[in-house]
Amino acid sequence: MSHPAGHNPSHDWQHGGFTRRQALQAGAVGILGLGMNHLLGLREANAEAQPLGKAKSLIFIFLSGGLSQHDSFDMKPNAPENVRGEFKPIATKTPGLQICEHLPLLAQRSEMWALCRSVTHGSNEHSAGHHMMLTGHSYLPTGFDPNSPKRTDRASIAAIAGYATRGQQKNNLPSAVVLPERLVHNSGRVIPGQHAGEMGPKHDPWIIEAAPFHNMSYGAFPEYSFDHQIRGKADDRVFQAPQLSLPQGLGMQSVRGRLELLSSLKRQRRDLAQHAQVENFDRLRQGAVSLLTDSSVHEALDVTHADAKDLERYGRNSFGWSLLMARKLVSAGVKLVQVNLGNDETWDTHGNAFPHLKDKLFPPTDQAVSALLDDLQSTGELDETMIVMAGEFGRTPKITLLEKSYKLPGRDHWGALQSVLFAGGGVRGGNVIGKSDALGAYPTERPVTPENFAATIYHALGIPATAAWYDVEDRPHHIYHGEPIAELF
């Protein structure tokens, strides 16, 4: 395959010993690694590589709907009443750093995490904001449709990170996973920015559908589910991760029911052995297929039956189960796991904001994120596992009441400012980057764009600044479009 004019292969993938051709081979791996005959060769070529960042894996916690910076990590207690809100700040373990009183567990662990209080972009619209923060691009692509994802959309951070780290993960696992659901609007339309976009469908991150769609219920079901407008539709969802299945064409069916798990595994092991004999799978393909019966993978997915102590620490709800699953997946070898804490617009607190944040959203988030930090620290994995928590935007400084829809006030969309939490992977805990004005409306120091945000993730995972992905016509596309947030490290 020829190189584009002016393209120097030696500039690509300098980190990790990847040549451009090896990178393309790595990018050809499917969900289970089938069809990649040179994986061991790539691993051997990579064996002595030194990463740019410290993180071997990353958990990207996404708060769809937009967390209010004023009511969480950038409180303004001296602002007017219609700006500061109902919550009071409390001290953290870090001198001089205060956060919301309803995040007490995170406050006690501030030495583990850092804040960026100056993330900013130019859109107040959900779909555009999702696309910007999930892809790391401040500008929307030509033909962007807020009502439907398109293949002309930018590739998601998860897809890019998955592409760039393929061949580095253990046990032929997918390199990028999104859980516990796709983000779908209550009308049924899928939110843009979640797939590989212009990279093509073969690079889409693997999605674990564990949380059934419900168009009028939000949050950490079953114990913390709620409806923004209290429309009275019962939430009877069950959190249940699907079992792994083979790609189409090998005669297998996807199995979703938990009760079918054991018999299906036995059946698939038997059938796979027959396929391996008949079709003469080579050694690497047999290794990839064996993923279906890897007990660590099935344990990671079946979190509702995890150890009782783990469930108590993380919480017996969709937030706790999701972060426990993410923790187990990165431990098993997945490079990037995006965790959607709540379905689309769960954090969209236009109204009833303060009771919903206090009683429904903050308790399971505070518990599950704190448990994740403790868990990783106790095993020594926090230093090599970065955690990032962000939404598509923040909320307006001024509190408003939309009387036709809500009984109590809230805040509207605000792309100009949000606070983002970073932890692990070499991040200096107790650190605050950036500053907002007195009303929490705009950055006054160190504005950080979605491009900087994405670059920070790529840098932490050891993806070199010269890295590119190649389209079907062998044209290179830069992965980095901004500088990482250097002050974090």
UniProtKB/TrEMBL annotation:
Pfam families: DUF1501
Domain of life: Bacteria
InterPro entries per UniProt: Alkaline_phosphatase_core_sf, DUF1501, TAT_signal
Protein name from the UniProt record: DUF1501 domain-containing protein
Source organism of this protein record: Blastopirellula marina
